[in-house]
Amino acid sequence: MSEETSKDRSQDGVQPALRSSALIQPRSAVGFTLDSSFLDALWDRLQEERRKSNQRDRQRRPDFWGRHGLDAPYEAYGSDTLPDRANLELLVEAAFWASLQHEEGRPLKFMINYGLSSAGTDLKFRIAKPYTVRSLVKLGAAVGNQILGIGVTQDSTGELCIYGIGGYTPLTITVLDPGQLIVKYVAENVAAITGDNSLLIRSPHSAVLSPFWRKFALKDETVEFSAWSDPRVKALLTVLRTMQRFHHGGMLVVVRDCEGWRDSLGGSIPYEAEQPSTALSDLIARVNDLHANGILQSEELGFTESYLDTLAEALASLTSVDGAVLVTYDLKIVGFGAKFKVPPAGSATEQLSILIHDPLEHGESASQRALDECDWGMRHQSAARFVLANHEAMAFVASQDGTVTVFVWEEWGDSNQYSSLVAYTRLELTMF
Question: Is the pTM for the entire model greater than 0.70?
């Protein structure tokens, strides 16, 4: 990108993520640099996330450090969990450049874990490798499942090096797709680099913490609903991540057991189950039983949760067929290939507005637009209109470009006097 183009984009209100430069020092092996203002903001945000993570740890375990003979100011997440400012730049730049490469004709999806894992799961090389784009490309296929990561640290001279294959560390960089990266610290997604944009993710913002999951709560529940501990949410996140990786586009709609939503179908469901399949819901019930009985560490629980992930991935595969997959709130599978009625042009639904939550928007928490002015294709439009007609439903849409959106109907206020159709966008940036 030329300096003139970069300037033009800045004037248009779009922060340029990358600007061209001559090849910098061989130490980095990167042919571009990230915008310095973004890197400064990222550095500050990571320091802030480290401070908040230490604060949360002290609040969660107020007496832990004292019992172990450690000073009260002891930090669970020390300064060594982050690189210095210069190495942060090299860490992210090389990851971005490597994400654009192919290994044996395949695009790379990998994770970088900065620092040494405290769990003792690291596979350390006898001789550390230089932190270069070439090294990342070679090792990317080995950690393509994004469970383990490429372990990176600063050596005795302060240079970045690849010491092996590393387990969990507070700072991670995940390559979702070519040119699309997420920077994460502990449980918080901090920044996203997507093509020609590099932006901080609004904090706090997490797919698991998003309020739309409250639709899974029972009407008469007396305790606050926790999406973190609900295996249905975990299973649906696995479905969405799998749909996102397919890059073919798809829709998953969650409906109540009542049949009122059938009035919004454009005909019968082509692949409807004779009876809704309980394969997923039975496993979820078993996981809940094991947790209720305090069986949190057992071979049966591990096997059940693993099989639940397998079935969730199989459910995602059904979205490859044109039309929507329909499941109930306890994840019984109703069928797939469903088509929805489209209101005629000029109907009342065309004039309705929608609230849009975007984790990359740092102004208002949500923007409001007319539904017919939203730049969405037919899949998104039909999902929005289905929820508009069926307030109890949730419609998840994955696009071919890898973006994930959910449409819900929400009510708020002291007596639920406010209501709106709401879209939570770019879930792919916050659900990993």
Answer: yes
Among 65, 135, 147, which Cα is nearest to 103's?
135
Distance from C-alpha of 129 to C-alpha of 29, rounded to nearest angstrom: 13
Residue spans per domain, the chain? 3-198, 211-429
Rg (CA), the chain: 23
Query: Which residues are 224's β-sheet partners?
Result: none
Mean pLDDT over each residue of the chain, to the nearest integer:
83
2, pLDDT greater than 80: no
Enumerate residues 6+ apart whose C-beta is below 8 A from 154: 83, 84, 87, 160, 161
Specify the pairing of strand 271-277 against strand 333-338: antiparallel
Q: Peptide bond before 204: cis, by omega within 30 degrees of 0?
A: yes
Residue-level pLDDT at 12: 36
Tokens of 50: 């480290």
**Is residue 29 scored above 70 in pLDDT?**
no
**CATH for the 211-429 domain, from 3.40.50.2300, 3.40.1700.10, 1.10.10.1800, 3.40.1280.10:** 3.40.1700.10
The pair of structure tokens assigned to 190 is 């901090």
**Residue 13: its pLDDT value, please?**
35
What DSSP line would sit under 115-127, residue for residue?
A: S--TTS--EEEEE
Mean pLDDT computed over 241-269: 92
Give which of 228, 204, 205 is closest to 216, Cα–Cα.
Answer: 228
Share of the chain above pLDDT 70, in %: 81
Closest CA to 229 of 219, 217, 220: 217
In this predicted structure, the answer to whether residue 125 has a pLDDT above a threshold of 90 is yes
Q: Any residues with CB less than 8 A from the CB of 40 and at least 6 apart, and which?
A: 85
Judge whether 320 and 312 are in contact, CB under 8 Å: no
pLDDT in tens, 319-372: 999 999 999 999 999 999 999 987 665 555 555 789 998 888 665 567 888 887
* CA gap 158, 179 in Å, rounded: 27
C-alpha separations of 274 from 269, 271, 281, 331 in Å: 11, 9, 16, 16
Looking at 79-83, 121-125, 128-132, which range is the least confident one?
121-125
pLDDT, residue 199, reads: 85
CA distances from 353 to 27, 330, 376 (A): 52, 30, 14
Coil, strand or helix at 72: coil
What token pair was written down for 172?
């991670």
Distances (CA, A) of 244 to 24, 249, 319, 391: 35, 8, 11, 25
